[in-house]
Design brief:
By secondary structure, the protein is an alpha+beta fold. The chain is built from seven helices and twelve strands. The termini are close together.
Length: 305
């Protein structure tokens, strides 16, 4: 390899490292807790075992579980957490738990028009602001209609229409009941998925390990998803379905019949104070090449092109 090419390669690696160091991660998890057929003590232990989560979106959560889920989310973390409870769904509520040291709640609300005939749950929305950068976004937790395909499809279409009108980035987690087949998902899934993602409004953050997210023995599909919309589609992201071990299913009377799904996003880091901007400015490629040459000359390992 020519000497200058080698030095340029080293410089580009350094510049890439500087850029990645400037990213600020945001981690979210969606988890259907199957209230009524699970035990909060077991669920809380599972939540506590998952570290470094900034926002949790729970579905099928009993309202009385809020403080235990908050404490479980905070277990082992050097941060304070708080919760937002949905008001619909009888005992199968929606809930958001978030790191209040990193995130400030601007407001929260429910999309009651998406709660078909008031029979299921109104999607729960938290308008949050990242304290370090003032980046604002909407975090949405859903549980779409399982018992009615028409109802579920209407909900998916209404969510698409709502998201298309928003100006803030959106992260949407939850149990969508879209039955994405593990082997033929691109062509074999519930029509709600197509209605949700129509016009590229929502995009699925596809997990790296696509395994079943629920323990029903009859189906081999994904029901739990993390979607993004708006500017959040441009955030680099990775996703994983948690508790992948085969022994997780079938569920017991103490555990949920759903697996949690996690996604981590890379957001732009906070800008430095004005006085420090020049001092913190990354070096140019030519400046890096000059530094590499000086170091190699000092060490006696440089060579001419």
């Amino acid at each position: 390899m020519p000497e200058r090419v080698r030095k340029i390669a080293i410089a580009l690696i350094i510049l890439g490292s500087i850029a990645r160091a400037g990213a600020e991660p945001l981690t979210v998890v969606g988890f259907n807790l199957q209230s009524g057929e699970s035990r909060i003590a077991t669920l809380a232990a599972q939540v506590a075992a998952i570290d470094d989560v900034d926002i949790w979106g729970f579905s099928e959560a009993e309202s009385a579980w809020a403080y235990q889920l908050r404490d479980a989310a905070a277990d082992g973390e050097s941060a304070r957490y708080w919760f937002i409870r949905g008001t619909t769904g009888d005992t199968d509520r929606l809930m958001i738990v978030f790191d209040k040291d990193r995130l400030e709640e601007v407001r929260h609300y429910e999309l009651h028009h998406v709660n078909i005939q008031r029979k299921v749950r109104a999607p729960l929305v938290a308008h949050l602001r990242l304290r370090s950068t003032s980046q604002e976004f909407l975090f949405l937790v859903n549980h779409l209609y399982r018992g009615s395909a028409n109802g579920r499809h209407t909900q998916a279409r209404l969510l698409n229409e709502w998201a298309a009108k928003q100006t803030l980035p959106i992260i949407a987690v939850g149990d969508y009941n879209f039955d994405w087949d593990l082997s033929r998902g691109d062509t074999s899934h519930d029509r709600g998925f197509d209605l949700m993602t129509a016009n590229d409004t929502f995009v699925w953050v596809r997990p790296s390990n696509r395994i079943v997210t629920h323990c029903h023995p009859k189906f081999r599909s994904i029901l739990d998803f993390i979607f993004v919309a708006g500017a959040a589609k441009q955030w680099p992201a990775t996703s994983t379905i948690l508790f992948p071990q085969a022994s997780y299913c079938p569920d017991t009377a103490a555990t949920s019949d759903h697996r949690p799904v996690r996604a981590t996003f890379e957001l732009a880091a906070a800008p430095p104070p004005t006085a420090a901007i020049e001092a913190a400015k990354p070096p140019t490629l030519e400046q890096l090449l000059e530094r590499i040459e000086r170091i190699e000359s000092h060490l006696g390992i440089g060579s001419k092109d």
